[in-house]
Amino acid sequence: MEVFGQPEQRDARRYSRLAQEVESSLQIRGQVTDEQAARVSVAAELAMAWSQFKAATTESSKQAILSEISQLQSQNQLMDTRRRALLDDLSLADRQDKDDAAVRSGAADEQLLAESALLNASVEGGSRAQSRGA
Predict the structure, then answer these.
(1) What distance in Å separates the CA atoms of residue 38 and residue 44, rounded to the nearest whole number?
(2) Most exposed among 2, 40, 76, 89, judged by the fewest C-beta atoms under 10 Å?
């Protein structure tokens, strides 16, 4: 590939980084889908347990069902905590990506300015040489 008339190698790291980002995104989406399915399952089990509790006729069966409900609620809270941690991680990764992109953009801008200055200097130097020779 040519950049400013000079042959320039393609940066394979950029393509590798993009592939990793896509793979990470797919993994995160899969994890979110799995956790959503688990949350639906726990919600259904909680609803069923509450129905059983309402229909229970003895105190011992109500206590056993309340114990099951407590375990399901703990499981639900754990999933909530994991979901929040995942969202925090995603938010942090997004901020880091934006910061990295800003740094790369700034570096690219500085490089372009430097290359432009070099081109201008070489053009001016060539013009001076021609005017002296004339």
Answers:
(1) 10
(2) 2
What separation in angstroms does the CA of 55 have from each of 42, 48, 49, 70? 20, 11, 10, 18
Residue 45 CA to residue 68 CA, distance in Å, equals: 9
Amino acid identity of residue 51, one-letter, is S
3 φ, ψ to 5°?
A: -130, 120
**Which contacts (CB < 8 Å, 24+ apart) does range 39-42 have?**
39/76, 39/79, 42/72, 42/75, 42/76, 42/79
Range of the domain at 35: 2-133
pTM for this model (two decimals): 0.54
